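so my prof wants the structure for this chain in the tokens format not the other one, which i didnt know existed until like an hour ago. anyway here's the sequence
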Amino acid sequence: MSADTAELSEALASLRFSSLPSDVVKHAKRLIVDTMLVAYAAATRPVNRRLADVYRQIGGTSESSVWDAGAAGVRLPVVNAVWINTL
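here's what i got, hopefully its the right format
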């Protein structure tokens, strides 16, 4: 581990939520909500649902969830789930 990595790790390990400025927390929450809403909008696209159906038929190890409101509980091999979730 490099010195920079060790220094960053120590700083992050000692960081406490209560020590974060309120504007930073507010902005982080906004970014999280934005990410979830964009992911939901993308997940409900027909192409994502068709791909989930194709990958479900192919099969494989149930490792990761697919972000799709129409495919609740669908779990696919990680590579396939990542591909669908990033569209």
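also thought this was worth mentioning. The radius of gyration is 18 Å.
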